[in-house]
Structure formats: C-alpha cells, structure tokens
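Entry under discussion copied across for reference:
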Amino acid sequence: MAVEIKRSNIASTLSLTPLIDVVFLLLIFFLVTSEFEDEERRLNIVLPSATSAVPMTGKPREVIIDVDAEGVIYLGGEVTSLEGLQGLLERAVASNPTNQTVVIRADRETAFQPVVSVMDICNRTGVTDYSVTTQEGPGA
C-alpha cells in the first residue's frame, strides 16, 4: 500500500505585496530624512565677530621648571621666586584647567626641598600632571 504525500501550496501562494510596501516605505523615509540633513548643511551662515573673542581653553603647553644644584628655580631660563612661579601656574591653569602639564628638571646635586616646594606649588594651583625628569642610563 503506497502512502501519498501531499505537498502544500502555501509557500507558492505567499503574497509578497506587503513586504514590497514596507521596503518602499523605508526607502521613502530614508530619502526624506537625508534631504533634511543636506538642507541644514546648505545654509549659508555668517557668524558674528567680536574683538575680544578668545578660545575657551588655550593650547596645552608644558611649563618647564629647572632647579639647579644650589636650589635656584628657573622658569624659561630666568630666575624666579616661588611666589612668581605660583602666579604663573595659576594663570596657566586658568587657561587650561584640565590639560596643564609641568615638567620639573632638577640637578642631581640639588637638595630635595626645592623640588618638593615646586611640587607643592603644583598641587596648590591645581596642576595634577607634573613629572620630574631623569637622565637615561646608569648613574655616575
């Protein structure tokens, strides 16, 4: 006795019309939204000018502080006091509140106290990114 297997005709009669409608609606939606984006870019706007306009933050610049063997502090090659150094760092932090870096270059023969004083001024003025440089290689 042979068993008959009937094949379903459901797959052959599936209507693709609703799927095509959805694809066309999505296509129209993306075309319309991309046109609005292009319109915003085409606007010819002349920005107002100001004579005292400055950027919100200046370019991050390293402040290099040198301490010689006698403990004298140099800033930009000129001798400076701790008060002068503090004033400069306060101005630098005001223009770069999060990006201000300080490099402390101390002579190997200097006492540790001047270096600690410079670090203390960095902490008081809000400079969190400071480092003490060293020379590469074995010590002599």
